[in-house]
Write a structure and sequence with these properties.
Belongs to the acetyl-CoA hydrolase/transferase family. By secondary structure, the protein is α/β, with parallel strands linked by helices. The chain has 18 helices and 26 strands. Bound molecules: coenzyme A.
Length: about 500
């Protein structure tokens, strides 16, 4: 292991800083704020967090944990079970942590993914004590070469008092050169960020830090968890085909070219199915400017339909992972990984005119979208990067199945129980039944589009009745306020919204 580490680590005197995960975890004290690498189950520090969870069983401690986004290898689960997490931000997808958040045991701060390090840099989140960063190499100046994600790692390492590096020797050496690390200047003298196309490179291939801050180097060989994306289903394929027809119409109308515009797709089965659908579509020279590069990105690159993809992480299934990581040199010219502050930067998203495709839990008849809270109270995952893209993209698209829980819940409701993306940020809604193009429509026009094109036919009569009753009362955005959340009340009481139809 030391021999292989020698090839990856050029920092003079690095051997003196090698220690076990347990010894490195001992550097973390009760009450500290810790920033960890990891974004959409890719590139997380793997051994030190688990060592911390083990230690907490006999030596209880609580920390504030910040990451890029979600972690793999059950790290959030183990840290929650060991009661290590007092506060957690900005995103998670773990069922055990979700339960602790909803029980009020862990304070979860659900943030736009582009914003966390901006708040840290501006000292609005207090000071960062320790950063734990997975690296594929360390340069002679102590620069950290990340692995399968950049996330918030660069700013965490730069802002933390101490840095623990997990040097992962199982990562391909070809990762060196994959990343583009750029940190914006401090305000008020910040310069424009010169990304003008998905393939623009503006930074270094490593995270520059003062080498004396490296308090520990832990050698690891852990693997990222494979993605949990399901193969396309009939519903997701229908959603994809509605969207592809819509894009074809936009090209015919001269609003888009056959290269569309840079695509952003949220993680998950629907987004993956939509991106896969583009392989068969009449489009060419596609590009991505997104957060996560998933299997469909590499299928599009391999098909010749996509020329370049920019992201903050690579999250792949077992099979696609074999293909990509064993042959990274072949893809390296056509992909780049950036800090999430750059991949999700509102200014760049607006400049490039991104087509943003994200998933809703539910939407209401006027186009407000809830992506995070079940029945208005219970956190699912978090807003993630969807807000960064939805507010600023050229086309803001939300997709969802028209019902959930085998038809017991309608995903189209009179009033969403929580608003993540308001009516001003939503251009297009798509379900398996159809697509509602809301651009340039007033609320009363949008309601008709959404009910008739997207809602499940079973729930349409009840939505029509609600809307007609509301219109009789008047208003720019008509509502029957006493009934607006009655569908959710039915879901809470009966586990089903079917009673609103009867
Ligand atoms: N009411 C209650 N629950 C609902 C629901 C609704 N209207 N719609 C879906 N659900 C439930 C599903 O039943 C499922 O529950 P289960 O895990 O117990 O089976 C769960 O929500 C996930 O739904 P699913 O249909 O499997 O979709 P998904 O895996 O694509 O996730 C989101 C959908 C909205 C939860 C997910 O996309 C997300 O977290 N989005 C916010 C973050 C984001 O957009 N990031 C994008 C940039 S990466």
């Amino acid at each position: 292991m030391m021999h292989r580490a020698e090839q990856r680590c050029r920092l003079p005197g690095w051997r003196d800083r090698i220690m076990s995960a347990d010894d490195a975890a001992a550097l973390i004290q009760d009450g500290m704020t810790v920033g960890m690498s990891g974004f959409t189950r890719a590139g997380e520090a793997k051994d030190v967090p688990l060592a911390l969870a083990r230690r907490a069983e006999s030596d209880p401690l609580k920390i504030t944990l910040m990451t890029g986004a979600s972690l793999g290898n059950d790290i959030d689960k183990r840290l929650t079970e060991a009661h290590v997490l007092a506060r957690r931000m900005p995103f998670q997808v773990d069922a055990t942590l979700r339960r602790a958040i909803n029980a009020g045991e862990v304070m979860f701060i659900d943030q736009h993914l582009s914003e966390t390090v901006e708040l840290l840099r501006n000292k609005q989140l207090g000071k960062l004590d320790v950063a734990i960063i997975e690296a594929s190499a360390i340069t002679e100046d102590g620069g950290i070469v990340p692995t399968s994600s950049v996330g918030n790692s660069a700013s965490f390492a730069i802002l933390a008092d101490k840095v623990i590096i997990e040097l992962n020797l199982a990562t391909p050496e070809a990762m060196i050169g994959l990343h583009d690390i750029y940190i914006p200047q401090m305000r008020p003298r910040r310069q424009p960020i010169p990304v003008t196309a998905p393939d623009t490179r503006i930074g270094t291939h490593y995270i520059p830090i003062a080498p004396e801050k490296i308090a520990a180097i832990v050698l690891t060989e852990g693997k990222d968890s494979p993605s949990t994306v399901q193969p396309p289903s009939t519903d997701t394929q229908r959603i994809a085909s509605h969207l592809i027809r819509f894009f074809e119409g936009e090209v015919e109308a001269g609003r888009l070219t056959s290269s569309l515009l840079p695509l952003q797709a949220g993680i998950g089965t629907v987004a993956n199915a939509v991106m896969n659908g583009l392989i068969e579509g009449p489009f060419e020279n596609l590009t991505m400017y997104s957060e996560v590069l998933q299997d469909s990105t590499f299928d599009l690159l391999d098909s010749g339909k996509m020329t370049f993809a920019s992201g903050s992480s690579i999250t792949l299934s077992e099979e696609c992972g074999q293909r990509v990581w064993n042959d990274l040199e072949r893809y390296k010219e056509r992909i780049v990984l950036r800090p999430q502050e750059m991949s999700n930067h509102p200014g760049i998203v607006r400049r490039l005119g991104i087509i943003a495709i994200n998933t809703a839990l539910e939407a209401d008849i006027y186009g407000n979208v809830n992506s995070t809270h079940v029945n208005g109270t219970h956190m699912m995952n978090g807003i993630g990067g969807s807000g960064d893209f939805a507010r600023n993209g050229q086309l803001s698209i939300f997709v969802t199945s028209s019902t959930a829980k085998r038809g017991e819940l309608s995903s189209f409701v009179p009033f969403v129980s929580h608003v993540d993306h308001n009516e001003h940020d939503v251009d297009i809604l798509v379900s398996e039944h159809g697509l509602a193009d809301l651009r340039g429509l007033a609320p009363r026009e949008r309601a008709v589009m959404i009910i008739e094109h997207c809602a499940d036919p079973y729930y349409r009569p009840a939505l029509r009745t609600y809307f007609e009753d509301a219109c009789r009362r008047g208003g720019h955005t008509p509502h029957c306020l006493e009934k607006a959340l009655s569908w959710h009340q039915a879901a809470i009481e009966h586990g089903s919204m079917r009673s609103v139809v009867l």
